[in-house]
Amino acid sequence: MSATFERVGTHSHIKGLGVRNGEVLPVGDGLIGQTEARKAAWLVVQLIRSGKMAGRAILLVGPPGTGKTAIAVAIARELGPETPFMALTGSEVYSAELKKTEVLMQAMRKSIGVRIRERRWVYEGVLEKLDVRYDRHPLNPYTQVPVGGSITLKTEKETRNLRVDSNIIYQILQKGITEGDVIWIDEETGRVSRAGRAKGYGEFDVQPKDIVEVPSGPIYKEKEFVYTLTLHDLDVMESRSDSILSIFFGAPSQKEIPPDARARVDKTVKEWVEAKKAELVPGVLFIDDAHMLDIETYSFLSRAMESELSPIIILATNRGYTRIRGTDIEAPHGMPLDLLDRLLIIRTRPYTPDEIREIIKVRAREEGVELEADALEELVKLGAEKSLRYATQLLSPALLYAKQNGREKVSREDVAEVSRLFISTAESSSYLKELEEKMLR
């Protein structure tokens, strides 16, 4: 008996905004309904692509369970598969180890990618033959260590025998590289990398799936490498190089990035961009429950929006008039009015029963749940009367209950039973009122 573990993400089915030629599809790219909000989000994507979002951010407002997070994810997916997407909630900025502004700064830097293009001279080919030369260890005469050797590389065009030093031999042995693997060796640094197993070399019944073609052209060649890092990755590398204690004594590296390290990274990245060695990939920073932020973090975000290196900032909240955290002032969504003036505000509305039906169908298909017609209608009823989230959360328990009773399809009785076992928020509140005197305070 075998079992497969699969983790289904809440928004794993979302591929984009579902807009074609400027028209919003009722059902498209995993999104259903919210046509007005999706049309506004599509216009935001066009502003981003045309470089006209500087100094502004987006605010998604609406009741709970109306797809605010889904629209934020869809905006990132619409911008491209390599678009960095960083999500956090307003409460996450209150860390015991980092300052509030440092948490937000790191989140912003994680939301900006740097696509680096680098041309290097390398030796690339299939490792046809490996000869290792051993000698006695200088400190232990009873142990032999590699001191050098030779390798034979082959491409479709030529075959060459190369003498290599102990550093390259060590890397080949440590990385488990064997004859028949495609490798490349950086001429400048001597770094050895394995690309995969050459096609047609060593046909086994069981082998890894990283089969690659035999390289064409000469063995010694100039090759372009493209890889993407975030600004935060570069910040960490830059700050670690300054930490003498962590190098010599193993002390923990600093968790807060020094401002001068970030300044050096920014200067280097700008030089790379100007020299056409790299390009920036602006991403999306999504902050859910934005009403949890306080006046200091709002001030920081207002300033950050005007920065040259700023991601697309999307805030979301389900609050109406409430107090701005850190003050005694009440304001719409618990946000300062000067910040609200900088935001493009998109509203989401409660779903209709027909939209709830389609959403449940999508979630059931994503989770592999087969529903009978009356079970689907029962879930639609629960979604309309209680909440959409409550209805979708019952899908997996209902399937498990059905299987325990020998059925592969979920029936209305299965839904009714799990809805009796797992109560909604409204039922929980009612239960608390009934037993208020017996509850601890």
TrEMBL record:
One of its GO terms (molecular function) is ATP binding. The keyword Hydrolase applies. SMART domains: AAA. It comes from the Archaea. InterPro entries: AAA+_ATPase (IPR003593), NA-bd_OB-fold (IPR012340), P-loop_NTPase (IPR027417), RuvB-like (IPR027238), RuvB-like_C (IPR041048), RuvBL1/2_DNA/RNA_bd_dom (IPR042487), TIP49_P-loop (IPR010339). Residues 54-350 form the AAA+ ATPase domain. Signal peptide: none annotated. It is an enzyme of class 3 (hydrolase). The keyword Nucleotide-binding applies. Keywords: ATP-binding, Helicase, Hydrolase, Nucleotide-binding. Its EC number is 3.6.4.12. It holds the Pfam family TIP49. Belongs to the RuvB family. This is DNA helicase.
